[in-house]
Amino acid sequence: MFYEIYLLFFQKGRNKVAQINKYELKNGKVRYEVQIYLGIDPQTKKQRNIHKRGFTSEKQARSWAKNTEADIDNGRLTVNDHSNMLMADWLNEWLDKWKINVKEGSMIIYRYQVQRYLIPNIGDYKLKDYTRAVHEQFINSLLEHGKKDNTPLSWNTVKIINATISNALEKATRIGYIRDNPTRFLEINKKYDNRTKRLHYWTVDQTEIFLKAAIEDKEPVWYVFFLTVLDLGLRKGEAMALKWSDINFDSETVSINKTRLYRKEVGNLANSIVLDTPKTEAGRRTLQMTERLKTVLKWFLNHSCCDDNSDVININLKAKNDDEFIFRYTTHKRGAVIRQRSVDGAFTRICKGLDLPKIHIHDLRHTHAVFMREAGVSLDDIKDTLGHKELSTTQIYAEVTPKVIQQASEKYEKYVQKKDAN
């Protein structure tokens, strides 16, 4: 191991110096660490320092040092020793102080993960005592008995929990509360790796079986809702947020410009409709309706505007409908906007007894992506349709089905035969 030390900053008369040290790992790779000297603590008479290591370049280390110094100068970072802070206190501070610019939908998920899984299990640890070994033990315990009934949590759920705590502790290292992020280089005990290849889509024939059952349901709204999700590839919150003003029957398009935060519609907000803008700009999009969806939506608009127990359209109701939510009950709860629990319940009820592979509502969106890929639509176009920011996300949704493999093989066969003929 060897060191090269650089003195970087002497700002505003403060006794504050940053050092960058270069060192080697056992495998010979070069890394950099930063130590910022903050002077002597007047109470303890000891040196105050902020330390972080693991940077892969001097430029990266200098940037971190500069940003950390700026945080100290503007008061966002204090120079006290926070390593004795409890994990529970840090996680709450992270949510309240450092995640202020996050979309509300993401905050709901963060808060749920923190309150449901993190604080009850690791909240009593001090930051300095939450080591990599402790973290691996915690993650493996979730995969072994993480649910309330002591059964395993799914791999995807644990990945989200791990990402949440990793995000929180990365910020703790960034602002100098701890030296290293113990969630890095996580190793999962293979006996707890419960990943299985779960089916994420139905075939065309299977979706037709489901839709036929939905159209026979006593509440017409469910057939229209699930057909909309399937034919447009929408997220559940996007479909629940649709208003008639988002529908253009002339151009046969649907504008996706908002989402329902149905997870927030609880407690004091149980009777409210909570809307938000899409998570990213890619989420704002205009989609083309299928012919069957256009026909069904036109029918449902007229059906929603009929007086009770009548087939006669009320013109006043139809004029008022433009800024109303599309998916409202038309039977015993006539006029009430559908709720998330009702959506889940209707999906389960309709699927019951159909002898279909078990999928979730969100998998109708996967199904849409698979159908588009089987139809030969490019991944870039599927990405735009689904409102994904990254193509890698679309690749997860648009699975390579046996039909896609067969089509690719047939194209290759034709290409080879054409070459041989020449």
Automatic annotation (TrEMBL):
> Which InterPro entries does the annotation name?
AP2-like_int_N, CB, DNA_brk_join_enz, Integrase-like_cat_sf, Integrase_catalytic, Integrase_recombinase_N, Integrase_SAM-like_N, Tyrosine_recombinase_XerCD
The Swiss-Prot or TrEMBL record describes its family as follows: Belongs to the 'phage' integrase family.
Q: Which UniProt keywords apply?
A: DNA integration, DNA recombination, DNA-binding
Please give one Pfam family short name.
Answer: Phage_int_SAM_3
Q: What is this protein called?
A: Site-specific recombinase, phage integrase family
Q: Which Gene3D superfamilies match?
A: 1.10.150.130, Intergrase catalytic core
One of the entry's Gene Ontology molecular-function terms is: DNA binding
Q: List, for all copies, the residue spans of the domain called Tyr recombinase.
A: 197-410
What's a GO biological-process term for it? DNA recombination
Q: Where is the Core-binding (CB) domain?
A: 85-173
Is the keyword Zinc-finger assigned to this protein?
no
Origin organism is Lapidilactobacillus dextrinicus DSM 20335
